[in-house]
Amino acid sequence: MTSELKLPANFEDYTDAKKNGFLRVMKLKEEGKKVVGTFCSYTPSELVMAADGVCVGLCGSSEDGIAFAEKTLPKNMCPLIKCSYGLAASDACPYFYFSDMILAETTCDGKKKMFELMKKLKPVHVMQLPPGREGTGALDFWEQEIRRAALAIGEQLGKEITEEALHRAIVQKNRERRAMVELYEVGRMEPCPVSGYEISTIMDSLQFMFTSEEKIKLLEEKRNEFLARAAEDGKGRRKPRIMITGCPTIGVRDKIIKQAELLGASVVAFDSCSGPRAQKEAVSESGDPYLALAKKYLNINCAVMSPNPGRLDALDEMIADYRIDGVIEVVLQACHTFAIEAAEVKRFITKEKKLPYLYLETDYSQADSGQIDTRLSAFLEMMQ
Ligand code: SF4
Ligand code: SF4
Fold first, then answer.
1. Cα separation of 142 and 130, whole Å?
2. Cα separation of 269 and 320, whole Å?
3. CB within 8 Å of 28: residues ≥ 6 apart
4. Which of 86, 138, 239, 338 could disulfide-link to 266, CB 3.0 to 4.6 Å?
């Protein structure tokens, strides 16, 4: 083991699951792999693949780390940011701990200011994401930012990114994307043979798998398993088909998705980072690879874009494709972009689509679990 690959001082205090996480990434590093930590769907992970690096997702998903983060960050902040920063700064996230660099973007204000603090812990390259897509400058600017990131990654990982390697990474990542979308689309079946909880757990687990082939294999196996399950299942009682929209749900999956399903819903679709939003559009495999990446990633419909009309179009399409009966919007506490956009989403769902809509604002604590259960029960009862 090189001196660079020491485990954290408090390693023995961690749970077995966390210890295993540290040992897994350390093994990867000992095999000579470079690890790049990421936080967002706007990250062009093809750049990391083209430099032979491994991408790991670092968005925090639990209460752990929040108290530590609040020593530095304001309390009234999105729990995803607080958790991510707290785990990183307290050496409690194996993936951050062993990352060679962080590839970040200026998305919401909280995240971009957190990255300034994170620079004290690790090499962080911040891509300047345009705040909107309008005008001719946004795409050109974003393409230049992707080129700048490629140079920074190449330098940090000690491997120059060539156009050939980037092209290969684009083709491979497109295969991964297709496999993800095909798994999500099992949710279109009626009755749906898989719970939203299972789908979102599988998708989140991909962030900690180290090769693209490994991810594709898991996605295909799971899809076949669910299709076989559909063939066996009879026509049970029809459950209300729910779409989740809004902020990433990685940290509130048990409190909201699992609970909604325990109360009788079938969560079949996700319009969020935990869904096909960022995966549906492939990167063009012909022409300039940097321009192709810029076009694809700038087209993601997240509330950090202003304006963001594509979100309503995507909701409209998913409501039809997945035969949605009701929409639950999840907004993490202090996430201003999604909270503000929720007014327009509510109008669209209730007035234009004439569907029931439930707005849940929450954090990563269990303090509001009872209240959420009550609101979910009332919402689902109304639909039955
Ligand atoms: S919600 Fe938007 S800003 Fe947040 S991780 Fe997803 S794409 Fe990035
Ligand atoms: S959920 Fe909202 S506040 Fe939190 S990181 Fe994402 S965009 Fe930022």
1. 7
2. 11
3. 35, 54, 98, 210
4. 239
Q: Which two tokens stand for residue 125?
A: 């390259």
The residue length of the chain stands at 384
Instruction: Report how far residue 330's alpha carbon sits from residue 360's, in angstroms, rounded to the nearest whole number.
Output: 5
The per-residue pLDDT for range 264-286, each reduced to its tens digit, is 999 999 998 878 878 889 999 99
**Domains plus CATH for the chain?**
14-164 (3.40.50.11890)
d(CA 129, CA 142): 6
pTM of the shown model: 0.94
Nearest CA to ligand 2 atom 8: 108
* Residue 324 DSSP class: -
Whose alpha carbon is nearest atom 6 of ligand 2? 247
Residue 92 token pair: 């409690």
With a 6 Å cutoff on the Cβ, whether 83 touches ligand 2 is no
Dig out the tokens for 360 from the structure.
Answer: 């849940």
Q: Tell whether ligand 2 has an atom less than 6 A from the beta carbon of residue 169.
A: no
Determine the residue of 58, 105, 108 to mutate for testing ligand 1's pocket, defined as the one with the most ligand atoms within 8 A of the Cβ atom: 108
Ligand 1 atom nearest to CA at 248: 1
Q: Residues with Cβ within 6 A of ligand 1?
A: 40-42, 107-108, 247-248, 273, 300, 302, 304
Taking only Cα atoms into account, the Rg of the chain, rounded to an integer number of angstroms, comes to 21
Confidence of residue 1 (pLDDT cuts 50, 70, 90): very low
